[in-house]
Amino acid sequence: MKFSDLIGLVINNLSRRKARVGLTAIGVVIGTGAVVILVSLAIGLQMNANEQLYGIGDLSQIYVMPAYGGEMYMAGPGMGGGGGGSGGSNQDIKLLTNAALEELRAIPGVTVVIPRDYMYANAFISYKKMQGYSGIYGVGTNDLVDFGYETQQGTTALSRSTVVIGYMVAQNFMDPYLRPGQELPPPPDLYDQQIQITLVKYDDQGNEIRKNYSLRVAGVLAESGSEADFSMYLPLDLVKSMNEWSNGTRINYNKTGYNEVIVRVENADRTLEVRDQIIAMGYQANTMLDFVQGINNFYSILQVVLGGVGAIALLVAAIGIANTMAMSILERTREIGLMKAVGATNRDVLSLFLGEAAGIGFIGGLGGVLTGWLLGQMLNVVAVVYLAQQAASQGGIPPSVAVYTPLWLPVFVLAFSTLIGMLSGLYPALRAANMIPVMALKYE
Amino acid sequence: MTSLIQVSGLKRHYEMGGTLVRALDGVDIEIAAHTFTVVMGPSGSGKSSLLYLLGGLDRPTSGEITVNGERLDQMDENALALFRRKTMGFIFQSFNLVASMSALENVAFPMQFAGIPPSQRNERSKSLLEQVGLSDRSHHKPSELSGGQQQRVAVARALINDPMLIFADEPTGNLDTQSGVTVMQMLSDLHKSGRTVLVVTHDPRMTRFATHKIFLLDGKVVSEADYQAATLDPLIGNIGG
Questions:
Q1: Residue B109: its chain A contacts at CB < 8 A?
Q2: What is the ipTM of this complex?
């Protein structure tokens, strides 16, 4: 039998039992609809999470640190700490010296290698009466451009007496003398203003010693959604001298190595490969890609779990299809006998009944896809408004989508429901195909 | 005249309710090509069983069935289906039309399994419906046709693949007298057109058209005289059905 004839017969046979086919297909509609909406929800959640993660770190960046076995050199002699860490002596640690930077630059695919230090001295930041909180990093004077940062005000270039601040830093300046009930002042416009960084340490007698730095805000970075939004960038030499003052010892990066080096890769696709090479060289290396991939893995599992919940409904529907087909074959036993008498092979009969079962799966799948998609759109409208309100009240990026149905999902679900229909009809169809013609013709 | 059908030692036994039923119990017959053979016998004599075995719709318990030089008892299901499609046409007592299909679609139905294109199917079906005098009823469903008209559709369907052999199982059993005569006349015309016709019936009128007669009693072929004697014996009871 030709495929076109088979399809014609299937359509004809299904359309003559509309009510029964419709009722059976409703079961499939519920199952496939559940799969579509639940998986779409999981995908929507994943997209939301990725949107929130957007810019959490440039995915082409790798943060390289010496493999200290968990302890940093700042916990060394100057701080009265206990040596080079639990991982072994300093001689065993591969330090991030200038020679090491050259080694990192030689890795294929690496475009930028930037040493970075952070200010770990006790310090407070102030502007007029206000005090601020921010991470303070030391970088080369022109390195911020290499990081890919852009400014919304001023420049990214640093000089000995300037600072570049992140987009959110001004929001973290508050008046410590504000009384309860007093209205919060608006965040200050720090651009081109002098801010003070005051370092504090104590001598052997416990007397407080302060050192003050006055720095002009030369630039405010544009919003990136990354740690840079909450950071202040000072010239590396300045941060080094701040740390030296705080430690009371000289820091020679060629001997102690840098605390951290940021490696940028030409393409995020190569990030993990380069990260692995750096680890193989004996350093610690982390990338936000690990985190993002972890999140994505979680949501992939969520998709499978939620899809599985919908699949249970589909399984129930499959039993319905099997039942409908078994009934249909009983009712049409004489017709099966006739088909065989006029020359239908067992394979023709099998194909016809499998086709009908698959047809029910397909019709139900189509209904389920449409229902699931429509429900998803409705849910989207409600959920996006609700989540946007949440984001507005609690801070964060408002979601653009809550339930998302990618094109592959309806195609997959439709194919799957058709396959499920076919599998459900397999046993009844085999029974039909193997009927003895004379028994079928005489069936009452 | 050459034998189109040869049957030897044919047995068809089956169990029903724990009892062994000998539907056919050693039948030897030969049916020549281009003949009109009527198989007569009372109810339970095995005449329908014989027709289904000759049509390859059932398997014998033992014995040989040769149709047009092919051993049906040695064919697998697939080969039997293809053989039926090419060689045989069937007419049943209860018409066996597909209720959801029009008369035209019912006639064309066997051709779908043969992979004939729709245009060709339609053309041939229309021509056959015209032959049986139903061209004006081609788009009617079986429920919209009388018994006689339905059986004429079934005759047209039996002819769709142009078979050499026509098997009819009680073709007039469900028809009124006039419709029965019409169908009998059609079967006779098929014979005259060169086909071999084998009709299983208890309708004695059919014997008027027959060139050959086979009489069955209790699964065995008997002579006409024995058959007449047995069926006239009041202890045998009602014949037919």
A1: 342
A2: 0.90
- Residues 6 or more apart from A357 whose CB is under 8 A from it? A321, A322, A325, A421, A422, A424, A425, A426, A428, A429
Interface test with B, best of A2, A3, A338 (most B CBs within 10 A): A338
- pLDDT higher than threshold 60 for residue A165: yes
pLDDT digits (tens, 9 = 90+) for A323-358: 989 998 988 999 999 999 999 999 999 999 999 999
> Which strand (E) or helix (H) includes residue B23?
strand B19-32
Q: Do A5 and B112 touch (CB under 8 A)?
A: yes
Q: Percentage of chain A surpassing pLDDT 70?
A: 91
SS3 state at B30: strand
Amino acid type, A400: S
pTM: predicted TM-score of the whole model, two decimal places = 0.69
Model pLDDT for residues A242-287, shown as the tens digit of each residue: 988 888 888 888 888 888 898 988 887 788 889 999 999 889 898 8
Q: Which among A215, A188, A56 has a CA at the least distance from the CA of A123?
A: A215
CA A176 to chain centroid: 38
Domain boundaries, chain B: 34-59+76-232
- Within 13 Å, how many C-alpha atoms sit on residue B80's CB side? 24
| Cβ neighbours of B77 in A, within 8 Å | 345-346
Write out pLDDT tens, residues B32-48: 999 999 999 888 889 99
DSSP assignment of B32-84 equals ETT-EEEEE--TTSSHHHHHHHHTTSS--SEEEEEETTEEGGG--HHHHHHHH
Q: Do A441 and B55 touch (CB under 8 A)?
A: no
CATH topology of domain B34-59+76-232: Rossmann fold (3.40.50)
- A1 and B112 in contact by Cβ < 8 A? yes
- B115 vs A contacts (CB less than 8 Å): 1-2, 5
Say how far apart CA A212 and CA A324 lie, in whole Å.
85
At A313, give phi and psi (nearest 5°): -60, -35
Of A338, A347, A438, the CB nearest to B96: A338
Which of A110-114, A321-325, A364-368 is predicted most confidently? A364-368
Does residue B238 have a pLDDT over 60? no
Beta strands at A162-165 and A208-221: parallel, antiparallel or unpaired: parallel
The C-alpha atoms of residue A347 and residue B146 are separated, in whole angstroms, by 34
Nearest chain A residue to B98 by CA: give it.
A335
> How many CB pairs lie under 8 A apart between chains A and B?
74
- Identify residues of B whose CB sits under 8 angstroms from chain A CBs: 52, 55, 57-59, 77-78, 81-82, 84-86, 90, 92, 96, 98-101, 109-110, 112-115, 157, 161
How confident is the model at residue A117, as a pLDDT? 87
Of B58, B99, B110, the CB nearest to A436: B58
Q: How many CB atoms lie within 10 A of CB A284?
A: 17
